[in-house]
Amino acid sequence: MNLTLSQFREFIPQRPTFGLFGYPVAHSVSPQLHAALFQQNHIKADYIAVEVPPHQLEEAFSLAKEKLLGCNLTIPHKINILPFLDEIDEDAAALGSVNTVLFSAGKSYGYNTDIDGMSLAFKRDNLSLRGKEVLILGNGGVSAMAAYLCAKNGARVTVCARNPKGPKAERLYQLLRRCGYSIRITDFSHVPERTQIIINGTPVGMSPEEGHTPLSLSQCPWTQYVFDCIYNPRRTTLLKEAKTRGIPYQDGLLMLVGQAARAQELWTGAHFQPKQLLETEQMIAVQLMFKRLREHYHRENLVLCGFMGCGKTSVANCLGKFLDITPLDTDQLVEQQEKKTIATIFKEHGEETFRSLEREAVRKASSQKGTIISLGGGAVLDPRNVEVVKQTGLLVWLDTPIERILEVLRGDTTRPLAKGGEPALRARHDSRTPIYRHACDLRVSGITIEDLCREVCESI
């Protein structure tokens, strides 16, 4: 639920309620994220987002003390909230930045759980900071937090700023110095060549200004790991370059989940298992993917194509469960309508009849909105089908390696075109590959269903 400050004045909580204060908050995923985390621990609570102009923060915070059990702060309130707090956690005080507030026994307590979120993300990748040369891009609040975390864990930190002698850079330098850490600040044309870890704390590459990157990884040939705090898009231009170069990387989504989970631990005493955080990350990833389908690609549906056995139906079902929707499978639509299996239709009526029925199934599925469609392996051979699905859907080709496909199809007698043995399957696969490549909007590749799901979400 998103509220204006005027609406928040009239708001009456019906059960334990927490909130987010920011300006703006319209595009925040925090309400969905916290709702998912509450559900993970069976906590009955609400979470609201309130748009609070900077000059009205004091009033909003006063109202929060009466109505909420805790709140989060985002831009531009993380620093301005400090004078209104009774007590501040050590890390938050060191940073001079608070993103989480707990109301308890008439007092307000401030914390910075972004540190916990980034720590969680690094932990998943088994990233060791001690003794590493870390380059942090930007000198804003996120970069300051990253510099503090890395220095605290024994890294040698360089901060890259557009104006290394400007007031923001000087404040960051003095902040770390007060904490007992020495860092170097430079500009983007003098980055340390032997940098091992790069952390992007700038908004460069964030939607809608995609396609830009804060620097080229060619400037840092020793790079071993890249972390981008951006999560929309999941794969920024910087991370695409890391992937191309074979450098391990991570976006900011798990960091977002981690900071929210830590906030709930402070508010409710809840504890989250790694599996719960992974499931929550996956759910938010799929929701973000569908949001980008509409806002960035201007499409309503996700359409999966690829060779038989590539995993289309399994991927559709895996993604669909996080959206609480039942995907549409064009082969299944044909079977339901004809009350016959595909194999029987081929045997009794031939492939031409099946392709005619398939065209109708594709048209019917494409008329829906907000769904996931998996096409039969040969559907895109007909340009009419491609034209129809692209009117409402983004066509994604699951380019699963042929060896994996052969493994899946081994012993499968239900697919008419799978007969003929391995040589025939390889030949058919090779002949269709250029057709899939030409027809698709995006190509993803992976071995497992989990790999393919992740690639679909990150690529979109």
Write the layout of secondary structure elements.
Layout (H helix, E strand, L loop, with lengths): L1 E3 H6 L6 E6 L7 H11 L5 E6 L5 H11 L2 E4 L13 E2 L1 H6 L4 E5 L2 E5 L2 H11 L8 E5 L3 H12 L3 E5 L6 H12 L5 E3 L10 E4 L24 E4 L8 H8 L4 E2 L2 H16 L5 H22 L5 E5 L6 H12 L4 E2 H9 L3 H8 L1 H16 L5 E3 L8 H10 E6 L3 H8 L11 H19 L2 E3 L4 H11 L1
Helix pairs in contact: 2-9, 2-10, 5-6, 5-9, 9-10, 10-18, 11-18, 12-14, 13-14, 14-15
What does this structure look like?
Helix 10 crosses helix 18 (449-459). 44% of the residues are buried. The mean pLDDT is 95. It contains 18 helices and 18 strands. The chain has 460 residues and is α/β, with parallel strands linked by helices. The longest helix has 22 residues, at 274-295. The chain has 3 domains: 2-112 and 258-273, Leucine Dehydrogenase, chain A, domain 1 (Rossmann fold), CATH 3.40.50; 126-247, NAD(P)-binding Rossmann-like Domain (Rossmann fold, 3-Layer(aba) Sandwich); 297-459, Rossmann fold. The protein starts with a strand and ends with a helix.
